[in-house]
Sequence to fold (303 residues):
Amino acid sequence: MNDFKRSKRFVWLFLVGCLIHLTIVGQTELAGANKSCLWKVTSPNQAKNAVYLLGSIHLLKPENYPLKQSLLTAFENSQILLFEINLDSAETPEMQQFLLAKGMYTNDSTLQQSMSPETYAVAEKTVADLGLNIDLMHKFKPWFFSITLMSLKLKQLGFDPNWGVDKWFFDKAKQDHKTIVALETVADQLNLFDQLMTKQGEALILQTLEEFKVLEKEIDQLVLAWNKGDTQKLEALLLKSFKEYPEIYDSIVLKRNANWLPQIENQFKRQENCLVVVGSGHLIGKNSLIDLLKQKGYSIEQL
Fold:
């Protein structure tokens, strides 16, 4: 159980990211890459300021730093920072208790009852490969099991949320006394996952188990695509597993994009520049934040 206690900090980073495998990176910056997962957006009607959209990687290693200069420049040029949530609020004891209350069954239901015998057998073996017994998780709801499973695997591979891009910029924004705004609350994210559990619990577990099959093999490809800002490659790698689970993708990515869009557009009414830091999956593909802004006539430049 100590492993589960230590993994709670990882769980929060996945709630921040929500697109589980966006966190798979682990190499240093590639020389010669002249693009990044950063876009500059301006309004043709309100050309007072710029809004930068940065695709975050939520867990990294120390050797991934320093970050590209384009990312640092966007930060220096911005007075307002928008994050998915306020990261400090996720670390309070009250929210940790709220997480456990939401993520675990309080009735007679069990994790095993939430999936078919075939899926449970695969899940049991996956947990055993991590050196743990699935019986320790018997009261976990499917979404909490999925997030915990992936967080433990990434921890095993050496990834640390303290080196995540959003964490780095959040701490830097506090240090520089910049304005920090949250696009949603921790409770919003917890409630979202709890709703997924009700309708799509087994699908979420299956999607996570599919990720385990390619987690280590695709690291280098993801690193290359992220460093080059290769959106087509990122889309192919990051979104392929969701093709079989479109309802999950719609819930944790597309609907949240639509909810965030008005808040981002409101930034164009200000004089100050703004840097928006969200999971990279929210910035690629059809009806991503970038696509939605293009549809509304904003001028967009990838940096």
User: Anything to note?
Assistant: The first helix runs from residue 2 to 17. The radius of gyration is 19 Å.
